[in-house]
Design brief:
Elements (H helix, E strand, L loop, with lengths): L2 H5 L3 H11 L2 H17 L20 H7 L4 E6 L2 E6 L3
Antiparallel strand pairs: 1-2
């Protein structure tokens, strides 16, 4: 059973709060005490790492690229891949 299922909260809200807080225990406590409103209070903080840099989940590369096609470029290179993004 996932925490989202146990708490009856949307998994994307839990995932976002966990990414910016880097502490799932604090996120879990806030979610159980305050629900979605408490999760929305988690924000980026200077000099605090984010996990994994606010990445969004996609099932495959095609889905990820279609979601960001208007402001991103992706190209394969000999030794990996290069991606470029601009703010919408």
């Amino acid at each position: 059973m996932t925490f989202a299922t146990a708490s009856s909260l949307p998994s994307d809200e839990i995932r976002r709060a966990a990414m910016v807080s880097s502490n799932l225990g604090i996120v879990a406590g806030a979610a159980l005490r305050g629900g979605s409103a408490a999760l929305a209070e988690f924000q980026l903080q200077l000099f605090s790492p984010v996990t994994p840099m606010l990445a969004q989940v996609a099932s495959d590369v095609d889905e990820a690229l279609s979601a960001i096609a208007d402001f991103a470029a992706f190209e394969w290179k000999m030794d990996g891949a290069r991606s470029r993004f601009r703010s919408p």
